[in-house]
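This follows on from our talk about sequence and fold. I would like you to pick a protein and set down its sequence and fold. Go ahead and set the record down below:
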Amino acid sequence: MSAMRVLIGETAHARYAGLLRQAAPELELHGSADPLELAHWAVSCPLWLGQPDLLAPLLAQGHKPQWLQSTWAGITPLLAADLPRDYRLSRAVGIFGQVMAEYVLCHLLAHERQLFARLAAQVERRWDDRLPQSLAGRRVLIVGCGDIGLSVARFLAPFGIELYGVASRARVLAPFLEVAGLDQLPRLASQADYLINLLPDTPATRDIYDAALFARLKPSALLINAGRGVAVVDADLVAALQQDQLAGAVIDVCRQEPLPAGHPFWSAPHLLLTGHSAAPTEPRLMVQLFVDNLRRYQAGSELRGAVDFVRGY
């Protein structure tokens, strides 16, 4: 029946189709990464699954699903002012926690163990016998305490880390010692050894890491941005690194991707670029989420990751 026709707009559409045929053989699947093919099938498919950057152009052309399941946690392309909002939209939730935690832990340990300094010393044939310290007792501030941020905190807790959080509003949330509202970011950031941004892109979360905030950081602090590039004022971060206002930055997400050749991030001191690789979508987990949400959709229930268009997530 027509309600079971699914459009898969994904670079890896064949992989998704294969997994979906096993998990929900009753579905009629039409997948592509080609804009013309997607537009052709969009007319007859009420259910869409895929990347916001591939599906947003279909909305701009006047096509509209009954329900769209994003394969990304971020849905910014679908929130453009000229696009419709009278359909059900859900974003990817519950599938990025471990892989994001592995990314964060990797860079926390690399920083504590001075991994890159030791690599540089080896290249220079210089014996580096400085002793590292432990993550135990370090203060980590996770900015963005939703599904992913909470998962990261739970993975870090066994290392004896003091966990603090910033969210849209203050709340009590284990294992955090404190979760404060966004207005408390300057206070908590000034006390943090590690500042980890996991915020979505909303008007309230843009340009919040600026010169004033960097001036408050410990000179030994490390910034990790795996949320959205627009949260960081690029020029202010470069200047802060040049002035040793913080020890370093790990930048996974940028305002423009790929990063332009002349961008100062390429040569900024103590800045590591990781090319938007922190938490890739695992198709197997994504298909499990889609099938679960499909059952909820058919039952008229609340979708996991249901998006509030007004909030933007």
